[in-house]
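S.,

Sequence below, as promised.
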Amino acid sequence: MIDQLKTEGKFTYAEAGEGPVIIILHGLMGALSNFGDTYEHFSKNGYKVLIPELPLYSLPLLQTNVKSLAGFLKEFMQHKKVNNAILLGNSLGGHIALYFTKHNQEQVKALVLTGSSGLYEKAMGDSFPKRGNYEYIKEKTQGVFYDPAIGTKEMVDDIFKIVNDRSSVIRTLAIAKSAIRHNMSADLPAMKQPTCLIWGKQDVVTPPEVAVDFNKILPDSDLFWIDKCGHAAMMERPLEFNRILHKWLISRNI
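The prediction came back faster than expected:
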């Protein structure tokens, strides 16, 4: 179902289901398909799920930053006539959700963060991206997961293509630097939305202490751990991720 994308003007997105709106925000090198199981589960269980393709590699370089991507989300919500949504973000997607919430509190019903940036940004390796070195990219890609097999050849090939395109590399680094500049620690105490934190215990990109800090600083958050799981819980342990999130949404009457 997630392969059936719609394109309307500058927006390309997946959409399914009816009910309260969940908008899913992917990470810097994450595909929409990373959320396939979550998209399927919630769109069939009382929610409308939207996953926009974020313009990570198509914005003008000076606009390739967290602020502009949050602006894109606002425009997408206006386009879809969504006034209030649950924002679910992984990695950079979580950071975009937080920045958007900072400036549009009334439009965010709840936050769901998994392996989110915003408090702590890990460098992408001392000599990233090592263009042309396939084995290095494979090692880095698979290292994001507890189970390296989750990092398929197709995924490695896609990331290898990105890091060997000069324009994409420049934008990747621009977004990474922007994420460091837009640290959210001072902003989190003002975010009163119910927040669900779902974290892999073996996340090496945004380690467990990051989740603990999010939980301490956000006024109304609940933290859930998934064992034997890395940076992308919704990919690596989708059944457990969906179970935790669905139970939390019900418990919070969202």
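Residues 123-128 have pLDDT under 50 and may be disordered.

Coffee later?
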